[in-house]
Amino acid sequence: MKSHVRTLQIAFTYIGTIVGAGFATGQEILKFFTRYGHWAVLTILVSTILFIWLGTKMMVIARRIEAESYEDFNRHLFGDQVGSTISLFTMVILIGVNSIMLAGAGAIFQEHLGLHYQTGLILTLVGSYFLLKRGISGILQMNSLIVPLMLTLSLIIIFNTFQIPGAERFLFLETDRSIFGAWMSPLLYTAFNLGMAQAVLVPMARHTDDEKSLVWGGIIGGAGIGFMLIAAHFAMSSQMPGILLFEIPMGNIAVRLGTVVQTIYLLLIFLEIFSTFVADIYGVTMQLKQRIPVKPALITPILMLVCYLLSQFGFSSLLSVFYPIFGALSMVWAVMLLRTPWSTPPRIDSSSGSSRKGNSLVSIKPVTRK
């Protein structure tokens, strides 16, 4: 039973890490899948297979090489120098994304709850700080509560869409987009999201004792992401092309479901912002802990302060420049992950005289003659 619970925690954390605020609003799904019409179902299937395969592989390899952070994992893929550079760039992107998400949390409190913008920021930061004090177990428990709610809402959306005219349009929707763009979208979408998610998935895998739980967690989590993709695409396709005019497409879908569901959906967007913020701060903290001689108890508040300051001035324009670069880098990262074997050969560290194989260290002692 304990193994099954751990498997579900891993699966839910995988889903919760991928399904961020962009997913919740519907903009990501609309841009990467729905606007490609009848190709979208097949491309979502491709993306689901990649999430199952690459996500599981990343976690298994991270556990076997004992990667404490995503920087350790990138060094394994690219070598020390290139891997370190890529990890630094990833850190900049994660901090920038978190700043924008924090601003989004403040906007929710201001626009929908009638509270001050700064109140939303402060409450999010304080809640994140106390949850992060519990480490990876706090992230696992948080997603074990949030993700079932997300999956339930996806089921409600599917059942509601069946009852309206045009529900079958997702199979026959026409598009003027290129076929090349349609088939590149799932590759870019999966690579980009896994490149971001490694910040929490790698340290989570490192602290998982049972590899079987990781494998099944990756399979169930990847399938869950695919299910939520198809549910959102199914609902938005029935509203095409008018749905393209909305800033928050899924918000328009939620309005049709009544006040209760609309309130749950609003809460869900905030919780997804909150869970992604917590996970990314944890991942960046684990990386910085290896680079600077400062305790995580100090690193975490400093990171939060940086995100808070950036959320005041806006970072979206600068991030719009970095995003395409990170997207291209994520494709290279995914190819390297594909090429990396599941089994890891022993690595000899000449300076310490040890051989690393899988998740064990074998000490190599000099032979002494009596």
TrEMBL record:
Composition bias, Low complexity: 345-363
Chain positions covered by the region annotation Disordered: 345-370
Plastid found in the keyword field: no
InterPro entries in alphabetical order: YkvI-like (IPR038728)
Keywords linked to the UniProt accession: Membrane, Transmembrane, Transmembrane helix
Taxonomic superkingdom: Bacteria
Transmembrane segments: 12-30, 36-54, 85-109, 115-132, 144-162, 182-202, 214-236, 264-285, 297-315, 321-338
Name used for this protein in its record: Transporter
Organism for this UniProt entry: Paenibacillus etheri
